[in-house]
Design a protein that fits this description.
This protein is mainly alpha-helical and 53 residues long. It contains one helix and no strands. The protein is rod-shaped, with a radius of gyration of 22 Å.
Length: 53
């Protein structure tokens, strides 16, 4: 039994999925980096509770 070559459609789909995965990973890294910077600078404040005046 011989292996068939990869169809062109699968190659394009893999490229598109890889690109989308990289964009998603970059977005997650950006949000994580901004969160780390905000917390370490001390700008982060927890919201006050309703009963606490």
């Amino acid at each position: 039994m011989s292996l068939r070559p990869t169809h062109e459609l699968h190659t394009r789909r893999f490229s598109r999925n890889l690109g989308l995965g990289l964009v998603l990973a970059a977005f997650v890294a950006l949000v994580f980096g901004l969160t780390v910077v905000k917390v370490t600078r001390g700008d982060f404040e927890t919201p006050a509770t309703v009963g606490n005046k």
